[in-house]
Structures are given as structure tokens and as C-alpha cells.
Amino acid sequence: MIEFRDVHHSFGDREVLRGIDLVLDEPRVGIIGANGSGKSTLVRMINGLVTPSSGTVTVDGIDVARHAGRVRRQVAFVFPDPDAQIVMPTVSEDIAFSLRRHKLSRAEIDARIDAALARFGLSDHRDHPAHLLSSGQKQLLAIASVTATDPAVLVADEPTTMLDRRHTRAVMRHLAALDQQLLVVTHQLELLADWERVVVIEEGRVVADGPGPDSVAFYRDLMDGTDGMDPTC
Ligand SMILES: Nc1ncnc2c1ncn2[C@@H]1O[C@H](COP(=O)(O)OP(=O)(O)OP(=O)(O)O)[C@@H](O)[C@H]1O
């Protein structure tokens, strides 16, 4: 269970999160909101990439700010930019690198690599230089590496931005079928339409929180009501 208690956050004098109170225990949680509304800042707090200016974030009762190392063993993170995540020269080495702390035998590592590659359509690229993959393939590799570690909680920040329609649906179907708790930040609203819970963030506050269809409808109305630009300019 992930809990935010009265979380505020400022970068310099800009307040980005303004009193977030959330208890997230559903298996699938979507986070949506306008550009710059604070979604990435919020989810980065779940594994200690950002520490709140005030308030607390806990995962299964563990305070992330005080025990980030412990929490990171349970919470895996997929970044929007796969280049920020891919660190090894080849595709299979990158997945193996993500498994380095798991004390697996060579045979188990190979089996997990094979399964991850097959799951995300990368089996033909096992020994391919990772930096020569297409942008979408890099995104698939980043997701494959993270899911291969079998984390208790998976947080994915815009995991499908570079994927074509077919791969987007396949990846979301796969992620949604995982046993682990899944939190996804996305602008692709149709992907969340049947999720049990979707939280809408606007200017650093939770403005809607409920079943996918209700939250998505609320957000569409919110977005259609204003273009967010200054009409006097
Ligand atoms: N490290 C940082 N230093 C300074 N300001 C930051 C930093 N990270 C984010 N911000 C600012 O915080 C605000 C919220 O950013 P955040 O990335 O959380 O928004 P978002 O809702 O994920 O946006 P998007 O949908 O565009 O990805 C933005 O105004 C951004 O410029």
C-alpha cells in the first residue's frame, strides 16, 4: 500500500504539490493531469527520487524519505526516457544488469532474459547493441528490464509515448495483467478507461479520484474547458 500524507513540494519558490493525501491500494492506479501539473514529481516520491518538502510518503508503512534503499528493492520505476534507464551495451546485458542484485543462477538469469524478450517482442534483438534500437524498441527494453526483476510495485511514468498503437496496447495489456501493484502516469486516456482507480492532478492538487471512466470523463471536461494558455498574449 502506498500512502501520501499531506505532501507538499516546492522547487525553489514554485509550489508543485499542494497537500496530497492519497491511500493507494488498488492493483491498478492511473495518474492523469495536464502538462506540468505535478504527476512525475508525485510518482517519483514513491521510490525516493524526489523527497517531499513536507509530509510523508510510505510504501507498506515504510517511510520512503528515511529508507529509500529498502523501498527501492520493492518499487521499480520505468522512466519516460528509456535512454535514462538503458546502461549496458547489448539488449540481453541490460536485462541481466537489472537482475544483478537478485542472486540468481546464470541459468535463471538466462531464462528471465528469454522470457522478458519474448514478452516484449525483442527475441530477435538479444545481442543487438542497445543504443542502436529504435526509440520504441528502447522503451520496450526499459520495460522488459524492469518487469524482469519482478518488483512488488511497478511505477511507470509515460511508458508508451514512443510506441505505435499495437505495441502500446500490447504493453498496457501486459502491464495490467501483472500480479504486482501498478501505477501508470499517462496522457493516453483511453488506456485507463476500464481501470479501477484513476487520480486526476491539477496544479499540484488531487481534483478527481475514482473509477477510470468517471475520472477520465471529469478530466476531459476539465481539459476541454480551457486551453491553459493566456488569452491576452
Ligand atoms: N527538478 C526540477 N527542478 C525544478 N523544477 C522542476 C523539477 N522537476 C519538475 N519541475 C517543475 O515542476 C512542475 C511539475 O513537473 P512534473 O514533471 O511533475 O509535471 P507533469 O505533470 O509530470 O508534467 P508532464 O505531463 O508535462 O510530464 C513543472 O513546472 C516543472 O517545471
Automatic annotation (TrEMBL):
SMART domains: AAA. Keywords: ATP-binding, Nucleotide-binding, Transport. The keyword ATP-binding applies. Residues 2-228 form the ABC transporter domain. It comes from the Bacteria. CDD domains: ABC_cobalt_CbiO_domain1. One of its GO terms (molecular function) is ATP binding. It holds the Pfam family ABC_tran. The keyword Nucleotide-binding applies. Belongs to the ABC transporter superfamily. This is Cobalt ABC transporter ATP-binding protein. It comes from Mobilicoccus caccae. The lineage of its organism: Bacteria, Bacillati, Actinomycetota, Actinomycetes, Micrococcales.
